[in-house]
Design a protein that fits this description.
Chain B: InterPro entries: NarG-like_sf. The complex is a heterodimer of chains A (186) and B (360). Chain A is 18% helix and 16% strand. Chain A is built from 6 helices and 8 strands; from the N terminus they run βαββααββααβαββ. Chain B has 360 residues and is mainly α. In chain B, β4 and β5 form a beta hairpin. The chains are: A alpha+beta (186), B mainly alpha (360).
Chain lengths: 186, 360
């Protein structure tokens, strides 16, 4: 059963467990590849996570002169192949969400690979396994459909794609109901 | 694609018009160059080592695969751009230093780990040195003659370079060069195989065809090569003819595989010097300022190039404010996305992003 990462942004409590968990994924070499942002840092405590959304037409891979960014059969856009990445940093400029990180010492780009060692076997990625507030979830398409039924719908504001994102993504993002004044039913 | 290219060609370029495709032209020029070099090197084909003709044919098949793979790759918009601009900047002052660091001493791999660096130096330099010995012998660019008993003349490109005693150090190094490199490659490959068995990330991502096959091929080449030496010294040449065919077969298969698998990064890697020059040169020319915070984050040229390349791929990231998303620095681009989700302009709040680096 194919599962995907699903984000309910308004659940985020800013604990940064996902960052810490990311560092522990095999091959991440104790460096996290995701982000947590304060929405309005001088006013309130609302935070939101931001990670690679694994675009269906990834700009990073399209702009890579070395074909170092491969797309896994599960749809995950992988981190640069270490032997191919030539360190031009085109991907960091191309990504519409500013996700890829660059290590100048190693001359190597690294980005979220959706913990491919886990997700290729159906195990949730590190961030989703540790998230205490169900901001990051690992769900089948059917479960995501069921989620949809729990919300006040028909206002086009349920799940983000256009215009909140730049294109179709493999990771599904739920729009923040609280901030938009939409009540959750559970 | 080739038909279209022919239509687009400017009239008057007779050399290009003589060929049906880039591929045909590159093949013709390289095979001609090889033939001319061999003609000179072998003193008009009088010193061709026909024992090695299989390698000669294998090399030409390899060149075919190489051009097929790399011409297709060079046609990709971002690749073409870096190649074109990078080659123009080839003669920067920093090029020798960058080349040595990227292609000879592998400093960046040292920073990825000493184990991986050791393994890479052993395999990399083992292969490079082997090629320096093998190909000159195959094409007759280097051969040995003997005038006085007990003294070899080393002939390079048809010219006598030096005369060495047959039991001297240089002669012995020449006889054993491929044995030494074989031991280097075997040690390196064993380190690589051990890492692939133990490292969890490697275990998750590796594929037989992409990651293991080149290692097994290098191992096969080195072991059959050493076996030849073993048979000569200890078995008085028994089994040598059969083993030399097996060795030849393994080398030719490795050469044919090279442009299509992991080993393709060997001919491809010099691109990283071009990329470094490209970044350094255009950074000196002028830096792009982030549309939101004004930080200089990339060269104007690269920013423009990436936007163009995305355009070629029919990807347009226009922000509502009218600029392209690639014109924002990375933290601002991330905050801008948060702003699209929440409806609050996070990127306009003049606060540095909170620490985003968890210490594992």
């Amino acid at each position: 059963m194919k599962k995907r990462l699903y984000l309910e942004l308004e659940n985020c409590i800013g604990c940064r467990s996902c960052l810490a968990a990311c560092t522990q994924c095999g091959g991440h070499e104790e460096r996290n590849r995701n982000y947590v942002y304060d929405v309005n840092p001088l006013v309130n405590r609302q935070t939101m996570p931001l990670m690679c959304l694994h675009c269906e037409n990834p700009a990073c891979a399209r702009s890579c002169p070395a074909q170092a960014i491969q797309i896994h059969e599960t749809g995950a856009v992988l981190s640069a192949l270490v032997e191919k990445c030539i360190g031009c940093q085109n991907c960091t400029i191309a990504c519409p969400y500013g996700i890829p990180k660059f290590d100048h010492e190693q001359n190597l780009m690294y980005k979220c690979d959706l913990c491919i060692d886990r997700t290729k076997d159906g195990i949730p990625p590190m961030c989703a396994s540790v998230c205490p507030s169900n901001t990051l979830q690992w769900l089948t398409d059917e479960e995501i459909e069921n989620k949809k039924k729990q919300f006040n719908l028909d206002n086009g504001k349920w799940v983000t794609s256009m215009p909140y994102l730049e294109g179709e993504t493999n990771v599904k993002v739920n729009l923040p109901g609280i901030l938009q004044g939409i009540t959750k039913l559970f | 694609m080739q038909a279209k290219a022919a239509v687009n060609q400017k009239p008057g370029n007779t050399l290009n018009n003589a060929f049906a495709s880039h591929f045909a032209k590159s093949m013709f020029l390289s095979v001609t160059a090889l033939a001319i070099l061999s003609f000179i090197g072998t003193r008009m084909f009088t010193h061709v080592d026909l024992n090695l003709y299989g390698y000669m044919v294998g090399t030409i098949v390899f060149i075919g695969g190489f051009f097929y793979r790399f011409i297709a790759w060079g046609e990709r918009p971002p690749t073409k751009l870096i190649l074109k601009k990078g080659l123009k900047l080839l003669f920067r002052k920093s090029t020798p230093k960058t080349s040595v660091e990227h292609l000879a001493t592998y400093n960046f791999i040292w920073n990825r780990g000493i184990y991986r660096w050791t393994q890479h130096v052993l395999i990399g330099w083992g292969c490079i040195l082997s090629c320096f010995v093998t190909f000159p012998l195959v094409f007759g660019w280097m051969y040995f003659t003997m005038d006085d008993n007990g003294h070899y003349n080393i002939i390079a490109m048809g010219m006598k370079v030096m005369t060495v005693p047959a039991d001297g150090i240089i002669a012995n190094l020449s006889y054993n060069a491929l044995n030494i490199t074989a031991v280097m490659v075997i040690a390196g490959v064993c380190m690589a195989l051990y890492r692939r068995l133990k490292n969890m990330q490697a275990r998750a991502e590796q594929k037989f065809l992409y990651d293991f096959l080149p290692l097994y091929m290098l191992l096969l080449v080195s072991i059959t090569g050493l076996a030849l030496t073993f048979m000569n010294i200890f078995l008085h040449g028994a089994g040598q003819p059969a083993m030399s065919l097996i060795h030849q077969w393994s080398v030719i298969i490795t050469l044919i595989y090279l442009p299509f698998g992991k080993l393709a990064h060997i001919p491809f890697r010099p691109m990283s010097v071009l990329a470094r020059n490209y970044r350094e040169h255009y950074a000196e020319q002028g830096m792009k300022e982030c549309k939101v915070c004004g930080d200089q984050f990339v060269s104007v040229e690269q920013s423009k190039d990436v936007v163009d390349v995305l355009g070629v791929n029919a990807i347009e990231f226009k922000a509502k404010e009218g600029h392209h998303l690639a014109e924002m620095c990375l933290p601002c681009r991330r905050k801008y996305r948060i702003a699209q989700f929440s409806g609050f302009p996070t990127h306009e709040v003049k606060v540095k992003e909170a620490n985003q680096n968890a210490k594992g």
